Amino acid sequence: MWKAFNLSWDLLVMSENPKQYNAHLKLMKRDFHTVPEAIEYVEQSWLGPYKERFVAAWTDKVMHLGNYTSNRAECAHGKLKNHLGSSQCNFARLWEQIDKLINLQITELKGTFERDLSCWQHEFRIHLLDDIRGVVSKEAMRMIIKKANEVEILVASNRACECSIRRTHGLPCSHEIAPFKIDNKPLPLSIVHDHWKKLFLVAPAKDPSITETVKADWDIFFRRLQGTTEEQQRHMMNKFKEFVHPECTSLVEPEQKARGRGRPKKDQISNSTRRLPSEFEYVEASVSTPKPVKEKLRRKPKNQESNLYSSRPCKV
User: Which domain of life is it from (predicted)?
Assistant: First the structure.
């Protein structure tokens, strides 16, 4: 019963809207009517005064980026206490230990950011993530893939999307991913919140020479655009729009056939060093007479051969 009660409580806490919350609460009261003390405790001590603070129907109305509790602060406090070893120390030792702990956390964060920038699992190597792979964190891509897998369920059930992940994490929900997945186009970077793009501790300094170079190149492009025909201008503007709006391009990545395992067949790759036959060899092979087939001698059974050499004793 305790396991079933925990499951019912989890469903109640993860309710997506007040209507679903009321339905789950009604279901809990019906299933556990034999223990009214537990239902009374849950309603009076938790749901009544504090449901807006931990039930998803109310907490998912703001952007919390996955921080549901204060576990991160408590974990950092616990690490600091373990690092100090004792509560009786002077200010110099306290400062030294805190500095070592912060430097250790910075090193771990740098390693995590480098892995997000360069190392990706096979689940992230899909066409839908081509424009955001290596720019956003793996956790964000993992949640996007989860919502992309729910597109077929959403379309088949014909139900409205709750858009909870857009409000809480700043990531595209299922109905935003659906048109890109149907048209086989990658998701644009602008659809992801800036929080998931911060894969560095210190923002790199801007180089003013890059801005000047871009302005000079843009002036050259504009002068060349004015000196071309109308058809060439249309073609150049179409190319320019593909850079400005990459989600509107008509180009589709060609499908690659999956390479099977094992050695390729002989008809695909020939590594033979034998020369090709000459023309006269083809002629000789076509007019050559077939070789006579030798007639195989019929062999007698073993029992007959043994009878020929066997002799019976003669009677005198």
Answer: Eukaryota
For the stretch 18-31, pLDDT in tens is 888 999 999 998 88
- Considering the domain architecture, whether residues 165 and 144 belong to the same structural domain is answered as yes
Pairwise CA distance, residues 70 & 207, whole Å: 39
Q: Which of 197, 224, 251 is the last residue of a domain?
A: 197
Where is pLDDT greater, at 203 or 180? 180
Q: Considering the domain boundaries, does residue 189 fall inside one? A: yes
What CA–CA distances, in Å, run from 42 to 10, 49, 58, 121, 266? 13, 10, 18, 43, 72
Residue 103 and residue 304: Cα distance in Å, rounded?
98
Residue that finishes a domain, picked among 140, 171, 197 = 197
User: What does each C-alpha distance from 15 to 8, 100, 158, 159, 162 come to in angstroms?
Assistant: 11, 43, 20, 16, 11
Q: How far is Cα 107 from Cα 115, in angstroms, rounded to an integer?
A: 13
Q: Which DSSP symbol is given to 300?
A: P
Q: What is the pLDDT of residues 269-303, one digit of tens each?
A: 556 677 777 777 877 777 655 555 555 555 555 55
Which of 170, 159, 226, 233 lies closest to 197 in space, CA to CA? 170
Q: Torsion over CA of 112, 115, 116 and 120, rounded to 10 degrees?
A: -140
Whether residue 309 has pLDDT greater than 50? no
Higher pLDDT, 87 or 41: 41
Q: What pTM, to 2 d.p., does this model score?
A: 0.58
Task: Give residues with Cβ within 8 angstroms of 192, minimum separation 6.
Answer: 132, 136, 140, 170, 171, 172
CA angle, 298 then 299 then 303, to 5°: 140
